[in-house]
Design brief:
4-stranded mixed sheet; 9 strands
């Protein structure tokens, strides 16, 4: 909804539930250097598609200067390697799902990004003092090397609620990591 008018309507039926947002432990099935992409088996009918731009820079801690050259995919992944990935686009027709290794976990007031060292504040929060307050709360509690996006609904929310959201999202991520170590891919 924008300015009180419906802009988009998404219908999800129980029989046709989408996969967007799901997190999988996948296995690299094929690396295509010419397309700078890889196909990852995540246990679905078709292998999922991972482009090099959607691949977390594992050796660089997720940080890469904008002008730094992209590391070729064949130097980052290999067939048989396991990766934790998240679906960003459902499979359509003959194409498999599009995935990323940049995981994001949405909460009520925040979005947790365990693979990105960054704090973002919604542009819709315009007051500089409020932006500074929110950044300080999140920066104080976030684990080193991780990131958060502060959603617009966090504006004027008390620190305790934000801290509870942070603790919850970190707990969810730790459970994902714990489960990852117990299962085999895909």
């Amino acid at each position: 909804v924008e300015n009180g008018a419906v802009q988009e309507l998404h219908v999800e039926r129980a029989l046709e539930r989408g996969l967007v947002g799901n997190i999988y432990l996948g296995k690299v099935a094929r690396v295509l250097p010419g397309m700078q992409s890889a196909f990852i088996d995540i246990g679905l009918e078709r292998a999922a598609f991972l482009h090099v731009a959607d691949l977390h820079a594992f050796n660089g801690g997720g940080k890469r200067a904008d002008d730094a050259p992209q590391v070729p995919i064949e130097r980052q992944v290999f067939e048989g390697q396991t990766l934790t990935v998240q679906v960003i686009k459902d499979a359509i027709g003959t194409k498999g799902a599009r995935i990323t290794s940049h995981i994001s976990l949405p909460g009520r007031h925040l979005v947790f990004m365990p693979t990105v060292d960054h704090i973002g504040i919604s542009r819709r929060i315009e007051k500089d003092g409020e932006r500074r307050r929110l950044r300080e709360i999140v920066d104080r509690m976030r684990p080193e090397g991780t990131g958060f996006i502060v959603r617009m609904v966090a504006e004027s929310v008390e620190a305790q609620k934000l801290e509870a959201d942070i603790r919850f999202l970190i707990t969810v991520w730790n459970e994902i990591i714990r489960q990852k170590d117990k299962v085999s891919a895909p």
